[in-house]
Design brief:
181 residues, alpha/beta, Rossmann fold, seven-stranded parallel beta sheet, 45% helix, globular, TIGR00730 family Rossman fold protein
């Protein structure tokens, strides 16, 4: 199984987020789950990759060629795939993955999440999608989604397309249980 993990590229975040990323990577390696990610060497992306690789797992980094600058990319990935554009990058990660986990991140992470959620809503993607809300990071997003539901800008069905976890092991367990359905 391959899981695509979306998350922050910045190291200028609370250490708890980086620790959760590393722990997710470690647990993925222990379960023989391959990481697909945006190829970043830093932030949550880098932490998850280190967690995977330092515990005997494998990772596939995917990034556009213009990111290939010193210190930006995790060149120690088991495999690295270069794309021409960000759009190609997202498509490649989606194609490679069997499931998706959104860890804390910024605008890019939100954009990746909402694209997958939209594809699921349109019945174009049937792969599990989990929000990993470390330290309650995504509680405000969940409130926003519930507000959209309450105001009828979104159907109840959309809320069934994504699940939420607060710990790395819980996120992996949710994916495993959805895979067996």
């Amino acid at each position: 199984m391959r899981i695509c993990v979306y998350g922050a590229s910045s190291n200028d975040i609370d250490q708890a987020y980086l620790n959760a990323g590393y722990e997710l990577g470690k647990q993925m390696a222990e379960k023989k789950i391959e990481l697909v990610f945006g190829g970043g060497a830093t932030g949550i992306m880098g932490a998850v990759n280190r967690g995977v690789l330092e515990n005997g797992g494998t990772s596939i980094g995917v990034a556009p060629k213009f990111f290939d600058q010193p210190g930006i990319l995790a060149k120690d990935c088991t495999q690295f795939i270069f794309t021409n554009t960000m759009r190609e990058r997202k498509q490649k990660m989606e194609d490679l993955a069997d499931a998706f986990i959104m860890m804390p991140g910024g605008i890019g992470t939100y954009e990746e999440f909402f694209e997958i959620l939209t594809l699921k809503q349109l019945d174009q993607n049937h792969k599990p999608l989990v929000i990993l809300s470390t330290n309650g990071y995504y509680d405000s997003l969940l409130s926003l989604l519930n507000g959209m539901l309450a105001d009828r800008f979104m159907s109840e069905h959309v809320m069934t397309l994504v699940s939420t976890a607060y710990e790395p092991m819980a996120a992996l367990s949710q994916i495993e249980s959805e895979q067996t359905k």
